[in-house]
């Protein structure tokens, strides 16, 4: 009626880019599933004023711009000043008769903003509560600086900087004071909120004045999404012991029963190890509590393993040597009743390698919960054509029970269905090609194979190996221009952490190669290379439905799970990938013959490490690899700056932890099989259908049901709550018990 177009309005809305990559996006999928499954669950985090930077490509280089996502306001959030809470920093400790007191602290207020999280068609609406930092009104004015009132007011920014900006590192730990402040800020505000809610409920029965916390773990479950909120463990202990006056052993028992920890990475550089000095300055009481936790933990291990000092050193929460550090993963394991990895292979590595000592001690504590994605966003919303086509064949119930996709196996040989699936894909490709032309002024051939590699730029994800394949294809076309070549549009996208030099060089290299390939008349439209600027959720929703080939090529044993892999599978792309993360389970579900699996397995990588990885040997043995590397090294792709990529080449030869050359040959051969199948459109589409039919396991609904039953001990409910305009009395007694926070 207003003459507005809904699609146009959707395009205008800013992404809430409050995470870096898979971990933040996983949390969003989990919130959708928890609401859809009727769980009383809350997602807590920080309301960053500036989210992940906007990426611009200038002259082939990544340039960062601030993501001022709140500039035009955010209609979905509601500030809740009535629930504002104080968070304390710095200060000192006083030993009193009543116990330790943390005094002379600096106070920052945490202002909550609530965003509704609606379940799918079930009238359930949960809450995501994000905290924003505010200075108290007497900030810097209660002490003797009354002299400089103006400066005191300006200094309020110091406190409010806590929620200013998201640290843009993915799979990398940066031990900065502001980052530790952020981690404690979200933890301290959230725990106060949870305890307030517990006390207000009938469960926090009060004996005279003191709350009885015995039922706390039955009523509250807290899932730690990686180690970033690990300070919640000493913080809950501080509340129980110092404030609620519980005896240590009882407090510790309740704490352990309340927390569970999800590990998201095995890369050593990503593990959080906070310097003791920093924690002592910022949170002196918490350091004291961590020391006490560690002492009791080590006493227990010394009792079980007498005279094994090396085991004590390995299992300690405190790492000695150089600067003393707190190993936050060890704190999480010791302080939780359940620890899980995010794919079968990852959970095995967690148990047998990374936390081997802990798993030997308490094997029952370690579990697997393979990641999933919400089919509401990653099929219905982003690919309505495919969603509708599936619904015509198997009904609409699959949206809430994705395992029903197996019914599609009946239609693998249905010629009409095969044609319709191919048609939907073609329409999505045309639409994406039009978007690319409108936004980036690049023309691409919609009948070419869309070969897509989108994720954060990182050495372990091996965008470099893809790049070497592009150069190899380019050289083959030039060597024999008349030979049949299956046309490809290679699309690579993703952000590099601003301080990650190698990742930024990889972006520059991809753009340099694209510059040469896209402008070579011999190549024509056989091969096009596009670097997709500013990859983010809203762009993923456009590119994934248009993809033919999904690149999931991390070195085996490095990608904990991956979730992009699942999104592509559900949207009718085929996967070229290593046996890593959830790729292993995707191959298990669809049959290995329906994915393009190549390269070293975890065992092969281990063996190669033992023998010693010699990059030079592959270079000497493989002429096409040698040619590609020589071109990059000699400045073929950077004629104005011939040694621009010397750092990249040097890394590949002398310190490539992720062994790009070792998988190059298998990767190129596997890509030849991909091209061969693509020529047979019908056979390709049949393989696509087999993949979609096998994607049901990878719904986050399945993942959340497993967390609910195995870790939180709550039952999902498929009861549809009556809408607000209907009387509620009928539903009163059907409310499920238990809360997962």
Automatic annotation (TrEMBL):
NCBIfam families: P_ylase. Homodimer; enzymatically active. Interacts with PPP1R3B; recruits the phosphatase PP1 which dephosphorylates and inactivates PYGL/glycogen phosphorylase. Belongs to the glycogen phosphorylase family. This is Alpha-1,4 glucan phosphorylase. Allosteric enzyme that catalyzes the rate-limiting step in glycogen catabolism, the phosphorolytic cleavage of glycogen to produce glucose-1-phosphate, and plays a central role in maintaining cellular and organismal glucose homeostasis. It is an enzyme of class 2 (transferase). One of its GO terms (biological process) is glycogen catabolic process. SUPFAM superfamilies: UDP-Glycosyltransferase/glycogen phosphorylase. It catalyses: [(1->4)-alpha-D-glucosyl](n) + phosphate = [(1->4)-alpha-D-glucosyl](n-1) + alpha-D-glucose 1-phosphate. Its cofactor is pyridoxal 5'-phosphate. Residues 726-735 have a biased composition (Basic and acidic residues). The gene is Pygl. GO terms for molecular function: glycogen phosphorylase activity; pyridoxal phosphate binding. Its EC number is 2.4.1.1. One of its GO terms (cellular component) is cytoplasm. Transmembrane segments: none annotated. It comes from Pterocles burchelli. Pfam families: Phosphorylase. Signal peptide: none annotated. Residues 716-741 are annotated as: Disordered.
């Amino acid at each position: 009626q207003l003459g507005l177009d809904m699609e146009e309005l959707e395009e205008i809305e800013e992404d809430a880019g409050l995470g870096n990559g898979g971990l933040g996006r996983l949390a969003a999928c989990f919130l959708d599933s928890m609401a859809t499954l009727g769980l009383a669950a809350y997602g807590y985090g920080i309301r960053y004023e500036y989210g992940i930077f906007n990426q611009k490509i200038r002259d082939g280089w990544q340039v960062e711009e601030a993501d001022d996502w709140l500039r035009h306001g955010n209609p979905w959030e509601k500030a809740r000043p009535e629930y504002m809470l104080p968070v304390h920093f710095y200060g000192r400790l006083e030993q009193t008769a009543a116990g330790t007191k943390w005094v002379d602290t600096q106070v920052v207020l945490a202002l909550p903003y609530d965003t509704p999280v609606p379940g799918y068609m079930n009238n359930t609406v949960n809450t995501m509560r994000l905290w924003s930092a505010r200075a108290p009104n007497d900030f810097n004015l209660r002490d003797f600086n009354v002299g400089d009132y103006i400066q005191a007011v300006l200094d309020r920014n110091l406190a409010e900087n806590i929620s200013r900006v998201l640290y843009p590192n993915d799979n990398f730990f940066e031990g900065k004071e502001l980052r530790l402040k952020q981690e404690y800020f979200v933890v301290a505000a959230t725990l106060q909120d949870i305890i307030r809610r517990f006390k207000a409920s009938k469960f926090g029965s009060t004996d005279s004045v003191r709350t009885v916390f015995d039922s706390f773990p039955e009523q509250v479950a807290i899932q730690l999404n990686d180690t970033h909120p690990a300070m919640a463990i000493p913080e809950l202990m501080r509340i129980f012991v110092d404030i609620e006056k519980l005896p240590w052993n009882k407090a510790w028992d309740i704490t352990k029963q309340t927390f569970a920890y999800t590990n998201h990475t095995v890369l050593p550089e990503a593990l959080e190890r906070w310097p003791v000095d920093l924690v002592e300055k910022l949170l002196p009481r918490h350091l004291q509590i961590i020391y006490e936790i560690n002492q009791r933990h080590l006493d227990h291990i010394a009792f079980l393993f007498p005279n094994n000092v090396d085991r004590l050193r390995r299992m300690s929460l405190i790492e000695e040597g150089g600067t003393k550090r707190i190993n936050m993963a060890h704190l999480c394991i010791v302080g939780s009743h359940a620890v899980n990895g995010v794919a079968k292979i990852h959970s095995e590595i967690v148990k047998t390698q990374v936390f081997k000592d802990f798993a030997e001690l308490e094997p029952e504590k370690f579990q697997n919960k393979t990641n999933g994605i919400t089919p509401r966003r990653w099929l219905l919303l982003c690919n309505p054509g495919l969603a509708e086509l599936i619904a015509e064949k198997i009904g609409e119930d699959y949206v809430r029970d994705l395992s029903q996709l197996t019914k599609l196996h009946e239609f693998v040989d249905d010629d009409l269905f095969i044609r319709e699936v191919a048609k939907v894909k073609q329409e999505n490709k045309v639409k994406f090609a039009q978007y690319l032309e409108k936004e980036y002024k690049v023309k691409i051939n919609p009948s070419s194979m869309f070969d897509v590699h989108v994720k954060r730029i990182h050495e372990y994800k091996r965008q470099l190996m893809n790049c070497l394949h592009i150069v190899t294809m380019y050289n083959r076309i030039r060597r024999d221009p008349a030979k049949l070549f299956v046309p490809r549009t290679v699309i690579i996208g993703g952000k590099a952490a601003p301080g990650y030099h190698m990742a930024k060089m990889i972006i520059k290299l991809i753009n340099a190669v694209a510059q040469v390939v896209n402008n070579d008349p011999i190549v024509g439209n056989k091969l096009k290379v596009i670097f997709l600027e500013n990859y983010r959720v809203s762009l993923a929703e456009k590119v994934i439905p248009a993809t033919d080939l999904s690149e999931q090529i991390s070195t085996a044993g490095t990608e904990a799970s991956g979730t992009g892999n699942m999104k592509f599978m559900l949207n009718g792309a085929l996967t070229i990938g290593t046996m890593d993360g959830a790729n292993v389970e995707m191959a298990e579900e669809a049959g290995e013959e329906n994915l393009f699996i190549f390269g070293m397995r975890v065992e092969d990588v281990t063996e190669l490490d033992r023998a010693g990885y010699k990059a030079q040997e592959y270079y000497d043995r493989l002429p096409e690899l040698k040619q590609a590397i020589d071109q990059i090294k000699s400045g073929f792709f950077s004629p104005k700056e011939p040694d621009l990529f010397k750092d990249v080449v040097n890394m590949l030869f002398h310190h490539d932890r992720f062994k790009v050359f070792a998988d190059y040959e298998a990767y190129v051969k596997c890509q030849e099989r991909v091209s061969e199948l693509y020529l047979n459109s019908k056979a390709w589409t049949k393989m696509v259908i087999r993949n979609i039919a096998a994607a049901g396991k990878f719904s986050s609904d399945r993942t959340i049901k497993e967390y609910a039953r195995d870790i939180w001990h709550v039952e999902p409910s498929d009861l549809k709550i009556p809408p607000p305009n209907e009387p509620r009395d009928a539903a009163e007694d059907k409310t499920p018990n238990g809360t997962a926070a």
